[in-house]
Amino acid sequence: MYAIIETGGKQYWVIPGEILQVERLTAKAGEEVTFKALWTASQEEKGATTGKSPSAKVTAKVVRHLRGDKIIVFRKRPKKAYEKSSGHRQELTELQVKEIQLS
Fold first, then answer.
1. Is the pTM of this model over 0.70?
2. Total structural domains in the chain?
3. Can you tell me the distance from the alpha carbon of 8 to that of 25, in angstroms, rounded to the nearest whole number?
4. Domain interval for residue 85
5. CA 39 from chain center: how many Å?
6. What are 47-88's pLDDT values in tens digits?
7. Stretch 8-21: mean pLDDT, rounded?
8. End-to-end CA distance of the chain
């Protein structure tokens, strides 16, 4: 079973038990958050089901908050003696997907 969720302007493919890093959420560590599933798929004994389900939800637990690796941004204009350097570290939240509810 898998689902596709959207958070922070990005879409993520998730399966139960998976740990993923998304952009910083306001929830505290240890809390549970719920996302609306954009797409779901599951394999049952009778057959596979896929598609949009308006009531499908994905429940995840906030494991921790962290910061990503530093990215160096360097700009230079040729023949103009212009150089500018700066860095960026993205604020992230680590989630553990608990379950996908189809109904």
1. yes
2. 1
3. 8
4. 2-101
5. 15
6. 667 777 778 899 999 999 999 999 999 999 999 999 999 999
7. 96
8. 14
